[in-house]
Input
Amino acid sequence: MKTVLVTGANGFVGRVLCAELLERKYTVRRVVRDSSHREDGGCEVVKVAGIDATTKWADALKGVDAVIHLAARVHVMSDTAAEPLAEFLRINAAGTEHLARCAAASGVRRLIYVSSIKVNGEETRDGQIFSGADAPAPQDPYAVSKWQAEQALHRVAGETGLEVVIVRPPLVYGPGVKGNFVQMLDAVARRVPLPFASVHNRRSLVYVGNLADALITCAAHPAAAGQTYLVCDGEDVSTPDLLRQLAAAMDVPSRLFSCPIMLLRLAGKLTGKSQQLERLLGSLQVDGDKIRRDLNWAPPCSLQQGLQATADWYRTIHT
Output
């Protein structure tokens, strides 16, 4: 494998992945929505206005050995689309299937699809740990579209011989992270007292550099073809422990206090933030052993190293 096409190349994961591919001497073709020049940091650049069942991929796929498909309509808390499920399916399911069929027709050997742990479900309970062998339980339009995309890819693989690898990451963090993780960094940096000291959940995370390394391994390793992998750092952490580690990485005190979980959930309902709050209270654990066994893969960075890199980045942009 020498030439890799990366969709979603300007995103949080895509930027790190492209840099790592270049570091390893791959030829990288970045798919972006808008580009004013043909090369970007040593990568070839291809402009694609949008991804759906009508996207014209022929030129982008010429000479490509593998596709790593990151681009997607992402999950948001307040979706403004008139029919969210239809829009998710149009881009994430139909668009992905179309890309796979075009890739197979162009002679691409392998497609690595970055799905989501939400295909497994929203949380784990009573010692449960998600694995790739679980019956899928998607619970929102985004997760449904990701699951349907996975099924479509397996159909394409069976019909064309295209090698497909599915990767379902949990929460991805690292320099450049957005959303809830940045809000957590903001609160810790401002030394805001946080009511999570008595939370006893467990959550799996994956550092963006670890995910990029796993995706490259999935693109190159012969044993990955046809497999579904759950990828994580391998060091599950509770919300209060995560906040303490972030505080230590930023060299500020952690200000945690206890509050009954029932009151926290009530506050979430009253403020309309139950979903966000549940991610801090509930558990979501991932069994990442399969990729380690099959591909002899191990995350290059520990949780502590990943959190330190994230904290260093955060302090750099806020000083």
About this structure: Residues 3-176+205-234+285-301 form a domain with the Rossmann fold fold (CATH 3.40.50.720). The CA atoms of residues 176 and 317 lie 10 Å apart.
